[in-house]
Structure formats: C-alpha cells, structure tokens
Design brief:
alpha/beta, Rossmann fold, Dihydrodipicolinate Reductase, domain 2, six-stranded parallel beta sheet, six-stranded mixed beta sheet, 38% helix
Length: 344
C-alpha cells in the first residue's frame, strides 16, 4: 500500500470548484481516513489569480497556467471543472499523459470526447471518473455502470436539467409566461447569464449522450440527439396540461425502439401525468427513472446542481481514484466500452 500524500490539482474555481477546494481542506482528516493516505491540494488553476475567493489558501497554490500545473509530473489526480470542450479536452489528455487520473463534472466534454478520453485513460493506466457530470449530487453513473452491470437497461426517462425544471415549475405555480420565469431563474442564480444551453436542451442532450454510453454501451454524437428546447412553451400549454391532469416537464428519454437496432435519445418538454414520479420533481432538482430487465424500475432523485451538492459528487470520484492509487492499481477501472455508434 502506498500511503504517501496524494496530490490533487483543481482546474477552475467557480461555484463547484470553490466548494471542492474548501472541502479538500476542511474534510482532509476524513478523506485521508477513507482513502488510506492524505490528500494534498497541489494547485488551483483560475483565469484571474488576484480575484479574492475567501478560501484562505497559500497564495502559491493559485496559478493562471493550467497546462503547467497538469504537466508538473507529480500530480496524482486532476479535477477538471472548467466546463466546455477546450481547453478542458487538451488539459485532461495532458494530465493523463503525465499519469494523473482525471475527475470531471463536464458533460459537454464527455459527450463530445468521451471515447477519446476513455482511450487515453486506458492507454496511460489512469482513471477517468465523472459522476457529477449528470444529475449533480445524485449517484447515477456508478450504479448504471457497476451495480446494473449484469442487468439489461431498457429505458431511461429523466429530468436532468435543473434550470428548465425550475422555469417550468414556476410557470406551473404562477400561471405566468416563459420570459418571467426565466428572469426569476437568472435572479436566483439557477440559470447562467447566457441560459441557451439549458433552455435549448443542449445541456440535457450532452447528459443523454453520457447516459447512453454507460447504460447501453453506445456512442451517440450529441448532434444525433432529437432536441427541442422549452422556449416555445406558453402559459396556455401549461394551463392545458393542468386541465388534463398533467404537468409540463423538461424530459430526457433514452430508449431502444422496438424492432430496431440502436437507441433513440430525445430531449423535449412533455406533458407528464401528475401521478408519474417525474411530475413531482420540483425546483432545480433532478430525477431519473431507470428501467432494467431484472431490477425493474429504479428512481434516482435529488439535487441536480449547486456548488455544495455537486462538489460532494466530485469528491466521491476523488476518493475512488485516490483509493485505487493507494492500493497500487494500474490501468483504468473497468468502463463500459463506447465504441459502437448507436443513434437510430
Ligand atoms: N445548468 C445545469 C442545470 C447545471 O441546470 O441542470 C447542472 O448540470
């Protein structure tokens, strides 16, 4: 067993990164006990190193050069929280080339470059873990990959975007229109200043691609996800749904259409019966209903976004990757292969 301190580099210090860095410090004794070796923050890469963040870190830990940080050669785990595909992809690859495991919360990165990143992880004998990339704090990817590894998943239906769920929820509660609910979401910090990826379904489509790889072992290019945003949902649609005993929800569906090869992925607003488990998902929460041949229906539900909940999921991956290092495992943990193209 290797009990030398494990060095962790964090790329990006936004809402989630701030909490990850804080918890690496405040939970250090607990983390060390669970991992079997101490975890040491080796550096935090940010765009502006002078911006005060109230974390009380040694000033020498901040850097605006993420590539130099991952190429230092002594980093065990790189936590990528930059979002977007570049420079996140290049930095993740550079980290793995240096022998570091990568933990990411970046669904866009995994949806676009999942196969390449998994190949890189396998080639360099490191782990690539991304539990926080779908449904925030809700443990979902590990159950899909590991716990249900011997089962056959037939269908996944979910609310995997908290921003659009919040907006449609507010429209349902107030009877108001999309614009007012979006403004509320921005004011409460749920929606980004540019909420396009959420309201046009791109965020949920990326999450669907990640789920398809793990649940069905297929690679679906994000552009092949059938996608309709929620910008066209009106107060009248919400009222019509209510009259039918239904509620409008931003659903993401992954299914194997009968008699056809491959899987169909779609993201769109839908009128869901009030008795359906997804109808009860409120605010920015997420819920995912997984249907499996042996297990039957399984419901995963909880905080789909937010700094503290998402940081918990990131740290879970840090613990998993760190434990494997302490035990001296080489080679990536078993991952679902994502080589087959799967969209129908
Ligand atoms: N914008 C995303 C959402 C953040 O609203 O769900 C979490 O992935």
């Amino acid at each position: 067993m290797n009990t030398a301190p494990l060095k962790v580099a964090v790329l990006g210090c936004g809402v989630v990164g701030t909490e990850v860095v804080r918890r690496l410090h405040t939970s250090a004794p607990d983390l060390a006990a669970r991992i079997g070796a101490p975890v040491e923050l080796a550096g935090v890469a940010v765009r502006d190193t002078r911006r005060p963040r109230g974390l009380g870190l040694d000033p020498g830990l901040w850097t605006d050069d993420p590539l130099a940080l991952v190429k230092r050669g002594d980093i065990d785990i790189v936590v990528e929280l930059l979002g977007g595909t570049e420079p996140a992809r290049s930095l993740a690859v550079a980290a793995m080339e240096q022998g570091a495991s990568v933990v990411s919360a970046n669904k866009a990165l995994l949806a676009e470059h999942g196969p390449l990143l998994h190949e890189s992880a396998a080639r360099h004998g490191v782990d690539l873990l991304y539990e926080a990339s779908v449904a925030g704090a809700v443990p979902l990817l590990r159950p899909l990959r590991d716990s249900l590894g011997g089962d056959r998943i037939t269908r996944i239906t979910g609310v995997v975007n908290g921003t659009t769920n919040y907006i449609l929820d507010r429209m349902t509660e107030t009877g108001g229109g999309f614009g007012a609910a979006l403004r509320e979401a921005v004011d409460h910090g749920y929606a980004e200043a540019d909420p396009t990826a959420d309201v046009e379904g791109l965020d949920a489509a990326a999450k669907a691609v990640v789920l398809a790889a793990l649940a069905f072992g297929v690679r679906v290019p994000p552009a092949d996800v059938r996608r309709e945003g929620i910008t066209g949902v009106t107060a009248a649609d919400v009222a019509d749904a209510r009259a039918l005993g239904r509620v409008v929800k931003p659903v993401t569906v992954l299914e194997r259409p009968a008699g056809r090869d491959g899987v169909l992925l779609r993201v769109h607003p839908a009128m869901v019966a009030r008795a359906h488990p997804l109808a009860e998902v409120r605010g920015a929460d997420n819920a995912v209903l997984v249907e499996a041949a042996d297990a039957g229906p399984l419901l995963f539900r909880g905080a789909g976004a937010g700094g503290v909940p998402t940081a918990g999921a990131v740290l879970g991956d840090v613990v998993a990757a760190a434990r494997r290092r302490v035990l001296g495992h080489r080679g990536a943990a078993p991952q679902t292969l994502v080589a087959r193209r799967g969209a129908v």
